[in-house]
Known about the structure:
Chain A is 70% helix and 0% strand.
Amino acid sequence: MPFLIEHLTEIVFVLFVIALLGNFFLIGIALARRQRRQKFFQRVDALREKYAPIVAGVLSGRIPYPQGLHELGSISGPDRLSMLEQLCLEKKPAPGQVPVLRRLAEDLGLVKIWQQRLMGQFDPSSLREALTHPQGLIERVSLLQFIIRAKSAENLGVIRHEPSWPLLVKALEGPHPDLQAVAARSLSAIQHPGSFPALAAQLHKVVLETTSALSLRAIKTALVSFPLENADELLPSLRHPNSSIRFYATDIIREMVKRQAGGDVGFLLDKRNLEPELAEVFLVELPFDENPDVRARAAPVISYLADSRAVPLLLTLLEDSAWFVRLYAVRALAKCRFLPQAEQIAGALTDPNWRVREAAVRTLRSFGAVGRDRLTDHFLRTDDRYSREQIADEFQRAGLIPELLAQCAEGGNGRETRVLNYLAEMGKTSYIVSVLTRGEGNGRLRKKFLQEFGRCSDPQIHHWVEEVARQEPDTELKALARAALMASQSQGEG
Amino acid sequence: MELWRQIFIHGMNMFNLFIISYFFIGNGVYTLLMVLSLGSVWLYNRRLTYQGMDEIRESPVTPPVTIIIPAWNEEGIIRATTESVLRTDYPELEVVVVDDGSTDRTLERLVEHFHLVKMDLIYRSPLPTRAVRGFYMNPDLPNLLVVSKENGGKPDALNAGINICRSPYFCTLDSDSILEGDALLRLMRPVIRSPLNTVASGGIVRVMNGCQVRDGRVVKVGLPKSWLERFQVVEYLRSFLFGRTGWDLLGGTLIVSGAFAIFHRETVVEVGGFAHDTVTEDMDLIVQIHHWAVKNRRRVAMSFTSDPVCWTECPSTLKMLGKQRRRWQMGLCQTLWKHSEMLFNHRYGLVGNLSFPFHLYVEALGAVAEFLGYFMVPLAIIFDMVPATLYLLFVLLSLAYGGMLSIGAVLLEELTYRRYPRYLDLATLLWFALLENIGYRQLVLYYRFEGVVRFLMGFRQWEKVTHVGVAR
C-alpha cells in the first residue's frame, strides 16, 4: 500500500501542476485576446472615422458616387473585405438608399465574393483574409462553412440583389437550417416572383418531413412578406390533401391580405388584387374545410372579399361548432361595412366561450357610437350574466366609465343611469368611485351622482358618500351626502 | 472496541472514496460543460452576425409576449423596473405586475406613477391562486395591468399573472431586475427558429452591482467595489455562460432561471403552473415540464441563450448571500426529492440519466460531502489513514482546478461578449476567478450545507433577500 500511496501522491502532484499551469495559460489567453481585440477595434474605429462619412455621403447623394467609390476602393490590407462589408452594411439602409448601396457593393467587388461564398466557393483574397485571424480559419472547416454562406446570403438580402435569387433558392437546400432560414429571409427581401414557388415547395417539405430542421415560422415569415399578387402560387397548397399544408397556406394568405390592407377598413379584395380562382377557393372550399383551423383562418380573408357571398359565409362561420372558428369570424366582422350585421354579432355576446364573447364586445365597440349603443342595449336587456360581465369588463378597459358618468351628469336619456345602476348592482364600482374621488371641478357630476346613487348599498359607493358627508368643503354636496346617508339608514331600519 | 475501530476505518474509507469520486465526477462533468460551452457560445456568437433583430421585430408571425413581474414589498424599485420593461423593444408586449399583498407602498407607487385606476375585471383562474383584490389599469396605457392580490408567495403571484395573460408566451422577471432593450427579442429567437415547440427559453442573468443605471437602463457596465459582489460576478458568469449553456447543448436542461425566462403559457397551465411546495419554483417547473412531456409523449424543446441579458442585483452582505444560497440549495433538494423517480429513468433520456443524477450527486449531496470533507479528512490524517501530504496536494489540486473552471468562464466571456470594457475590469475578474476557491467557495459551501440541513429538517419558508437598490 505505501507504494501505491506514494504513486498517488505523485499523480496528484502532477495533476496539481497541470491545473496550475492551466490557470496561467487561460489567463494568458484572456489577456492576449483582449489586447488583440483592442488593436482590432482601434483599426475599425480609425477606418470608421475616415470612411463612414463617405459611405453615408454616397448613400445620401452628398458625395458624388465616383468619388466615394474611388475613396472606398483605396482601403487596403488583409482584412479589406471584412472592413468594406462592415462599413457598407453597418447600418440598415433606408429603402431609398438600397439601389446606391447595391451598386456600391457591386462595384467594390463585394457582390461577386458574396455570391461565391454563398455557393461554398472561396476566392484567394478571402482565404488570405482568413489566414489573418484564427476564427476565419475555423469558419472554413467544411462543417462550419454555413456561417460564411449564411452571412453572404444575408448581405445579398440586405442590398436586395435581384440577380442573386436563383443562388438563394439553391441555398434553400443548403446543409444547415441557418443557411436555409437566411436564404428564405433574403428571398423575401428581394421579393422576386420566381422564388415564391420555391419557398412554397419548402413549406410543403417542412410540414411533411417531420425531421426538417428549418422552422415553419422562418418559412412562413418569408412567404408572408411577398406581395399579394404572388398568392395564387399557393393554390395547390390550398387544395393539398394534407390539412396542415392547407392551414399554413390559408394563414399565409391571411397575413398577406392583412398587410396589404394595412389597417384600411375600406380595403376590399377584388379581381384587381386577387386572382378570381383564389377568391373562389376562399368562398367555396375553405369555409367548409374539415380542418377547423383552415375555416378559422379563411374567415378574415373572406371578410375582405368584394362578393355578395362573403357576408352569409361569415355569418355561417359565426355559428361554427368550433369556438375558435367563431372567434376568428367575429373578429373578421370588425369592419364598419358589417354594421348591418350588428344584430348577428350581438348574438355572439352570449356565446358559451368567453373569448368569443370578448371578441364580440370588441367588434361591436369598433363600430363607434352605434356599436356602443348596441352594447349598451344588450347590457341592459340581457339576462345572461356572463355577457353582461364581459361588457362591463370592456366598459372599464376602454375607459368608457368617465364618459358614462359625464353623460349621466348631463341628463342623458336615462340609459347611462341604468347602466351605472347595473354596474353598481354587479359590484363593479371601483372605477366609478375613483373617477368621483379624483375629479376636481366635477361638482355637477358628483351632485347628480349623489342624487341618483347616494342611497346605493354598494360598499364602495357608500364609503364614498360617507367621505363626502364628512370632508367635502362644498356645503351643497355635503348636505346631499348627509341626506343620502340618512335616507339609506332609515331605509335599512325600515 | 476493535469492532468500533473497524467500523470507523471503513466509514472513513467510504467517505474518502465518496469525496474522491465527487471530485472527479464533478470536475469531469464541469470540464465537459466548459469545453462544450466554449464551442457552443463561440459558434452562437458567430451565428449572431447574420441573425438580425429586424426579422423578429417586423415579422407578423412573432408571437405576442406578456412580461409577468411578481412584486412583494418592492416600493423602492418597482417603478423603475416597470418603466424599463415598458420600454422593451418587442412588437406585441403586455406587462402584468402582480402585487403579492405588499405591506409597503408598492401598489401606491405604481398607481401614482402610471395614473392607474382600480377596475373590477373578470378573473378567470385555470390555476388556483389566492384571492385577487383588484385590477389597476390606465386606459391610455393598455399594455400595462397591475393586479393586487392577497399574499401567497412568488409562485402564487406568477400563477395569477399567467391566469391574466393572454399571450401564448409569458416572460417571468424579478422585480429587482432590469432587461436590456432587445433582450426579449433575443430570448424569443430560439422559440421562433426552433422546428419544435419551445416551451422554455432562458437568458443570461448578469450582476448589476457596480454598473451605472439611468432611467431603468444599464448605461455603463462596471465591476462592483466589494469583494463579495465581485466573486458573485465570476460565479454568475460560470453558472450561466458555461453551466447552463453546456446543459442546454447536451439537452439536459434542469434549471432555467425564473428571474428571466420565457415559457409557453398553455404548457405551463397544463402542468399546473408554478408549484408551491418548493422554494425554487422555476427549477420545479422545468422538471415538471419534463415529466409532462414524457407522460404525454410530447416533443418539446427548451433552450438557453447567452445573449439576452437581464441585469440583477446580487446580495451585497453576507447575511443576504446566506439567505439566497440556503434557499437555492433547499429548493434544489426539494425539487430533486419531489421528482426522485426521474433518477436513472431511461424514459427521461439524458435528463434522467445524466443531468438529474449529476444535480443530485454533485450539486445536492456534494455540498454535504465537501463541507464534511474539510473536517473528516483531517480526522483521517490524525488517525493515520491518509498521508498529510496527499491530503494537502489534493486540496491544492481541487483549488487549482476550481480556479481553472472559473477562469475558463471569464475567458469565455472575453472570447464572446466582452461586457466589461476596461482592461482593469478583465484583470480584476481573472484575479477574483483565481481567488474564488480560497475562502469564498467555502463560505458558499457553508450556506449550501445549511440549505441541505434545512431541507432535511423540513423547512419550507422563503427567505426574502433585500437589496441596496442599484437601479433606484
